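Slide 14.
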Amino acid sequence: MTFQSEFVTISLDELSACSAARKAEGIRYVQTLAVNTEAGVDLVYTFMKDSMIENLKIVAVGKDDVVPSITGDFLAAFVWENEIHDLFGINFEGIAIDFAGTFYDLAMKEPMTVISPAQLAAREKAAKIAAAKAAKEKAAAKDAAPQDNADAELEAKLAGMDPEKAAKVRAAMEAKAKKEAAKAAAEKEGE
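Slide 15: predicted structure.
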């Protein structure tokens, strides 16, 4: 048997009507999947009849959004709705069997909304690249003295570095500048 699958994006307001329509057509509920994204949490409701798998996708559900429960049509959805509530912090309204945040005994609240170390590294790298690009553009647009251009180029390089290393370099440069200023002041007094 060959299965066919389709994804249809719907709005949060359409969920209840879509669920009721699938129940009326004798379509079976399979699961609800939650995916953490930059814009919020995407919910994918999967239904199946014969060899057709239909996925209804709701994008960018936020912390303040209220998702209507589909447990009135498909009681088995209470498992997924309680799980998504506990792991992602999504608010479901009207769950037939509501564990009220105690479905899982968790060490931290909403653990799946925490970004992974790889995501954090990717975000930091993107921020460094953007800062370096902005500094280079600023230096290119600036029609200033050679020293100012050198400072801008140095800032562009520092923007692309690891933040801790860049802070150490800046601190060393400031200390050197203070030392040179103190030396110049001492020489001036000695004259």
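Speaker note: The CA atoms of residues 14 and 90 lie 17 Å apart.
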